[in-house]
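Exercise 3.2. Students should predict the tertiary structure of the chain below and write it as structure tokens, then compare their answer with the key that follows.

Predict this chain's 3D structure.
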Amino acid sequence: MPRTRTLHRLALAFALLLPHTLLSAAPAATPRTSSGELQDARWRLDVPADWNGELVMLAHGYEPVGSPQPSPMPANDSTAGLLAAGYAVAQSAYTSQGWAVADAIDDMERLRVQALSELKDVHRTWILGFSMGGAVAIATLERLPQHYSGGVSLCGANLPGEQLANDLLTTLVAFDYFFPEAEGLPRQGLASAEAAALSQMALYQGIAAALQTRPTVAAQLATRLEVSVESLPGTISLHAMILHELATRAGGMPVGNLRTVYRGFGDDKASNAGVQRRAPVTLAQRYVRGKLALTGAVKRPLVIQFNNNDPSIVPRMQTVYPQLARRAGATPLPRVLPPVGEGHCGFTDSQVVEALKAAAVAR
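Answer key:
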């Protein structure tokens, strides 16, 4: 997740020009760090020297299966800003990679208990998540509100699992409808087992090449999916990777489109007649409806914030959870802050801290 470091670098450069006596007069306080492993999930806890008595449980975002896992566990990019603001920060690497929301909820709860055993006199505990971690934060607040004063979802995939999977499937079958039998991609389509066997790079390259053959259609597809044409290959390949990983985790395709009526892809009659139809696997459908459920019934202050022009969490996704909360009668209702920055999870350290402070005010 990108971070703005220009001011930090300028400050450091200026500090190097100061007399040695000035530098030694104000030594930087060093946070203390502990780490370990809980049921195969690596974790770390960072506590600033001037700790304010508050704990932030930080839930990281989606990590593709097979991504390198350096040891010791590195801190999330936002850790330094939270520590500078006085918060202790606990974070888990999760038991598994991929769309690990269900695992992450349990991993974060085990880590919360561990953190409280190491810290004394914690005044308030918050949960803050980025991207997929935003869904982890919200699900945790729904299921375990007694342990938290509130939470923050930044650039979050704040959708029930079934709704998210349906959205991903729509992307794939729409591409297949417009670009059947694209070179380098399986004839069975992007939702097939054959596509699941391809790497994201192979998917990306095949999708990008196909889109270039019909730029007008590509622009129409980009408009419907609410992304730029430039972002379209990455968005489609990411949707394919997440849906297939979720299907592996759930034990089969978790959603189907046998009765789905599609709109907005040009000729609705033609697209609904020509789009590939798939049935869900019952066991997998139960998984997303149960393990990945979000109801909107949040009972703690929740702050939600997105970035501008995010190709991963597009506008149609951003309105889902606030609508769920209104229908569920959540008290208080989630507070949605105006979007800031650009892209996916493009927050500065100060913006992360301000979102957390907004959750405290919303109590």
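Discussion points: Strands lie at 32-38, 41-47, 54-59, 88-92, 124-130, 150-154, 302-305, 307-308, 335-336, 340-342. The two ends are 29 Å apart (CA to CA).
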